[in-house]
Each structure stands twice: as C-alpha cells, then as structure tokens.
Queue: 2 jobs
Job 1
Amino acid sequence: MPAYLDTPTLIDLARRAEAAAPGPCACTKTPLDGWQSQPLSLDESQFREIGTLLLQDDQEPTFAEYLPGKTKYWSADAPIAPRYFPYNRCGVWECASCGRLYLRYTEGGGYFVDRRIRALNSALIEDVSL
C-alpha cells in the first residue's frame, strides 16, 4: 500500500510540483481543476501513485463533505480537505509527462463505478478537523 500523506506533507508535495511544472498540464484536454470522471483519453501508463490520503487503520472513513459557503463538489474552487469525503479515499498520483499531481478515487454507486480525478492545487488544501 502507498505511504500515507498527512496534510503538511501533501501541501509541500503540491507546492513543489506546481513550482516544477507551472501552468496547466497538457496531458489531457479535459480541465481537471474540479472533480471529473476520468477521461477515456487519459493514458493510465503515464501516472504513478506516490501516496494515499486513506488512513490504513480507519475502518470506515467518513462520507461527510467539507463544502463551506456555496461551494459544490464539482467546483474548481472547492476546498481540498483531506479528512473529508472524497479526499479521505484518494490516492495521490504524479503525471510522468508533466510532473503535476492529481487526486484519484473510485466512486461506487448502486449500478456504476466511476473513476474520478482532480488536479491537486496547494492553494485549496485545508487542514480541517472533523
């Protein structure tokens, strides 16, 4: 299992990746600033998992969301709160082509499974307690 990344480590990794790869990723034509269903055109082989936000000893991570004000789950400006859903179920992945970092998780519903992806933006990470 990938190593657990606490919030200060996540912020540090995100800032370093942003400094090394300023500007948007050209690896996908779909904007990934907010959560998106993973585009079919995204090349899986260009990503490597570098860590997880899922605590190993957490038997049942919360489904509570942290969406202050009028932010929505799909919004590009929605905060990234690692202790809240869906972030508490995410892997942190690095694009081998551009070095940018992405959050990925699998949303499971009654009749579907949807792989979702969002670009990691250090300015949106909030260390908020449950």
Note: The helical segments are 7-20.
Job 2
Amino acid sequence: MRLNHLNLTVSDVKAAMDFLVNYFGLQIGSTRGNGFAVLFDDGGLVLTLMKGAQAVYPSTFHIGFIQESEERVNEINARLKDDGFDVSPPQRSHAWTFYVQAPGGFTVEVLH
C-alpha cells in the first residue's frame, strides 16, 4: 500500500497551483474556479488544493520533493531566490535540503 492522495487547504489555490506546477512539475488535472484544483505528479500522486479562509498548519508540517541530485536542489534553490522567494541556501541535515514557504500557506522541503 502507498499513499497516493493528499489534500491541502490553502489560502490561494491559483498561486499554490502555479507554484507547484512551475517549480516541481506537477500537472493540472482540473480546476473549479478559484476554490479547487487537482494536480498530479509523475509517480501517481493526486494532490488536491482547496481554498480555506485561513490555512493554518503546525510549524513542523511540510510536503517534500526529493530530487535526483544535490545539484538539482541547488538549481531549484537559486531559481526560487532569483524569483524573489525568501530561501536560505541548502544545508546538510538529514539530507541536502532547504525549506520554502509556498504561496497559499504551506511549507515545502526540497531535498536529496
């Protein structure tokens, strides 16, 4: 058995969707106005985004995108920084990793 569906409540569905498509290659399955979107990854995950008045997650909550190399982690970090996101450089922790606050109110970890 594997986890293959996750729903995130977000404050801005379009911004969160655009972020996930642009930086992590998710594909748009469908949308319903500005309140709902279905995204797919290339491994069969279905990620739904639902608009909520306030998206409040615990400080340790995050979703992660494992990359094929440290170089790819560095590339995504640089691209996010160039595009104006507040990201610290990757560091060695449990992996080569960094975190970014995504539009819509959730945290993303990028790691190898």
Note: The first strand starts at residue 5 and ends at 10.
